Amino acid sequence: MSLAPRAVIVHRTTEYEELLARHGTHGQAEFFLSSRGRSIREVAERHGRGVRALAAVSAAVPPQWRRARVERADLDRFLFAPEDVVVVAGQDGLVANTAKYLAGQPVVGIDTDPGRNAGVLVRHRPGETGRLLRAAVARGAAVDELTMVEAVADDTQRLVALNEIYLGRPDHQTSRYRLDLDGPSTPAATGWKGPAGAAAGGGSDGGDGSAEGGGGEVQASSGVLVGTGTGATGWLRSLWRERGGSRPLPAPAEARLLWFVREAWPSPATGTSLVEGDLTAGRRLRLTVESDRLVAFGDGMESDALELTWGQSVRVGVSDTSLRLLA
Prior knowledge:
alpha+beta, 10-stranded mixed sheet
């Protein structure tokens, strides 16, 4: 006999709950905020709306279904099952935080505070939860398959993310590494700036500014960012605009990534030629560590990062896993 579906409700501790945890009582939290010219009233009202929305979501789970709840801080310790339907109740960012721990389970994004969230990923209101849960397990459910990015280290560590993966020092100081491109090379995907860029950078590619022949580059920079079409509304977009937007941003469901090196530094030993590009399916960016410690983390979750040290390499590209978000 097959198991009934399980609804896993993912939520996040509210600002009000965090204030109570820090200060102990409502009165102490109110005093703390008022001493800084703020009122606790708005925070408490948002907390109340969130609690009511979470209660409505929970009440909408069909009675024959199994259910579980998990807080954002516990996601890396929670075991999702293949038959789960994941209900993310909160902000858009909470969907991204959850996506990295899934393996194709359908996701329902519920906006618990309409008007404050963009609603890109939390597309639905609490009152729609019951209908969406039933649709998620029906044949032909309308879902968007959102592209994800993955990083795989040479010791088999693996990390996936919905928005972007950052590679660099955990303190965001100068990162030292060698950057290469693996896979089929095309002019749109190389990321090389050409002879002028190579002459300025003096990199390790022999000075011709070409990625042909597997040439790479030793770099010192503030790290590398690789992002998806979903992430093109956030951190990735800021770098894209800074570079003049010369490459089209990927669409959320497009199997293409953009990558940027942040603040590459030219020196006799390091170059600035290989600083941006596209990654399509089968194309990988390879980073080989040349310093004591670098990390790779996804979607701002620095506490759940890959640890990399001297000589290790990590490859980043389009993930085989995608986020199945109910439309």
